[in-house]
Each structure stands twice: as C-alpha cells, then as structure tokens.
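Hi support team,

I'm filing this because I wasn't sure whether my run with alpha-D-glucopyranuronic acid finished correctly. The job status page said complete, but I'd like someone to confirm that the output block is well-formed before I use it downstream. Pasting the exact inputs I used:
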Amino acid sequence: MEILKKLPMPDGMTKAEIVDLLLHEEYGYLPEAPQSVVAEVVGEEKNFCAGKATLRHLKLHTKNSFGDFSFPVFYACPNEKNEPVPCFIHINFRNLVPDRYQPTEELIDAGFAVLTVFYKDISSDDGDFTNGLAGVVYPNGKRTDTQCGKIGLWAWAAMRVMDYAQTLPEIDGGKISVVGHSRLGKTALLTGMLDERFFCAISNDSGCSGAALSRENDGETIAKIYEVFPFWFCERYAKYANQEDGMPFDQHYLIAANYPHRVYVASAEGDAWACPKNEYLSCVAASSFYEKQGKPGFVHPPRIAEVGECFHEGWIAYHKRAGTHYLSRDDWKFYIDYLNQHL
Ligand code: GCU
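And here is everything the job wrote out:
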C-alpha cells in the first residue's frame, strides 16, 4: 500500500479537468456525438432461449457531422417482464450470442436485457485507421497526436448503443451498465467516464491502461503496451513509456472520473499480466474522489483483497476470483449480485 503515498491525486480537480487530462494524454479525443441514431431490425427470433427471450439482430445507423456510420448490434430481452428491465451493454470480442464471454441465457434468467456490440465491427484491432468508423473519422487514415485511437472509437460505439437503449420502453434507462473484458474493459471504463447515463461501468481484467495503476505495475507496463498496441491510444501517450513516476495522473483518475455513477473493477488471481494488486489499489486511490462528492467510495479492508473476496458496499466495487484471464460466469454472477443489491 506504500505506493498510495506516491500517487498524484485528482481530488482537487473537477471531473471535467480529469476527463480532459486523460483524453489529451492517454486515450485521445473522441468524435462528437451523432445527430441521429436509427435502428433497423435485420432479424428477429421470438423464441430465443427456450422462449424466454427475444433476440434481435439490429443495424444502428448514425448520422454525423464527419460522415455516416452503421454497425450491427445484437439485442436479447426477456419476454416476461412486469416492468422495464435493467440492461447490460457488452462490448465483446466476438459477434456471437450467446458467447463464452456472454452467458446470455443466465443474464435473461436474472432479469437483464443485453445489447452486444462486436468491437471489430467498429474498426479493426490494429493500426489501420482507414476501415470502419476510423475510415469515416480519419478520411486519410491519419490522426493528430491527440485524436483517439481504437479504444476511443470502440467507446464511441458503446455510447451509440446507449443512445439506442435509451429509446426502448422495455428497458429502464437509469439501470444500464457497460461491461467489457481486458482491452474492452479499458474501453468500458472510458465509456463510463464519458457517458454519465450509465448506472455502472464494469471492467473485467482490464489491467494496464485500464483499471490497474501504471506505477509499480508487476505485469504489463506502458512501454510494453505502447510497443504492441500504440493504436489503442493517442500518440501523446508514448511519452509516458518508462516515465510512470513523473506522470501527472495514473489509472485511478479513470476510475474516479466514472463519478457520478458506479464503477466495478474485477481481477483474476492468475492474471498477473493485468496486475490484480494494482487494479485493487487503483480502486483504493480513487475512493476519496467519490467521498469528496458525498458518495461512499471504495469500502474495503486495510489490505489487498484475497481470492474469492468481493467488496460490494460502495460506489466503487471490486472482486478477485480464482482462475485466469477470462470473462467467466463467475464474474457475471458477481456483477449481477452487485447490481441487484443497488439497483
Ligand atoms: C494483451 C494486452 C492487454 C490486454 C489484453 C486483452 O494481453 O497486453 O493490455 O488487456 O491483450 O485485451 O486480452
């Protein structure tokens, strides 16, 4: 816990200042919100999951000042409901429903709807900025050093799914959470920071440049992530490689800037690359920002979490499960328990 004394703290800053700092230095500025988002129903299965749900294949058409962009979304919603249901927006690695990272029937059984966006339908996961949304936003495939990388583009799409979710009468617009795993957990936290309509942003094993503090990270470092995945970030982020100690921020700023809604960080014991210790300490360090705004922050014991523990009392929540890097049913169970406790 010694590291906590060495961290810069966002407590004297406004949320807008934190957001600006993180966009300018790490993720880059996103394209502006669209003028309109219209959904087209491409297919429908009314008897999905033994008749418990309806699954729709949608295409979301967005009209923007920089150009139009359309992308597919899957939407599964319980058929039986007495009132508007809570919902997940899941930014996923595959365009499958269900998927090993998305146990859709269990989510339906728990009373949740789920909207899924496949990240590569937005733009490829590489340095090519000429395809998908990147090709529309960056017509010659070139960015300035503060324009966003792929994480920002994926987050932009998740917010468009939120725009659409807000129009659905069967969904409770105040009970929508965004969730993603790993690089898409980083994306979920950025989405949560930028979009105050969410109830909770959920980061599963997001690690370096996601939930985990960059200072004294035993797993992935900024130098390592930027060497392999520079296109996830804005170009200015390069200058922090091996310069963590002098950074004017750390990843707890991203957790803190999820205020005014809730944020959930999950770690897996066997996921050393994501540095579970630093994911936990980031929650500890972000707590005072929430507390200053009059919300309970991270309610936790004065030590590092043990395997199997969850801390679900505060507006910052955390669990550490056994096993490796994965978005498992065990993680979803923890999320559903937390949300049911507070929704
Ligand atoms: C790599 C990368 C991580 C990332 C992970 C993932 O391991 O180094 O930062 O979280 O991929 O997205 O699966």
